[in-house]
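Appendix B, example 12.
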Amino acid sequence: MSLNQTLAVKPSAVALMALMAATRFHHFGTPFALPDASLAVFFFAGLWLGGRYLFALLLAEAVLIDYLAITKLGVSDFCVSKAYGFLVFSYGAMWLGGKWCRQFTGLSIATSAQRLMALVAATSIAFLFSNGSFYWLSGRYPNGSFAQYIERVAMYYPPYLTSTLIYGVVIFGLVTVVKSLLAAKATREAL
């Protein structure tokens, strides 16, 4: 691969970066803003694009957005702590989950189910890194206990997983529709 190919702008990478930039300001979303799509962005970047430079670029974008949100837009810095660095592992889990998901090709119900399970597994691992590190290392819960941690998991895991799954289903669905339309067009043109 040449340097020009490595540095070439990929529209899908730009689209994923734009999605993260548009949604990262509200972790769980509000009535006026979509929830954070960062997990889905890393998953799909790993699935379709790969490349360690893109992973590093997406990490830099996430940090820059967080910095701007906190310093310029008044977003709370509550989640920024010693545990913030563990987001690298969370996003790495999503990226690797996407790369692992590459093996599931085709347009079938079985393939869709396999992709969905890969997304669930990657998101669950990412949650353990981000939530676990925040609970145990952030200093926000000095008298934390395993029972209290389980209560926090029950509170935060469902929206964490749900928003990522919604993004995943929508993006997989859109890509499947586009691929089907392109295949139908190619078939018509071949006749």
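Helices lie at 3-7, 11-23, 38-48, 52-72, 87-100, 109-137, 146-190. Residues 3-190 form one domain.
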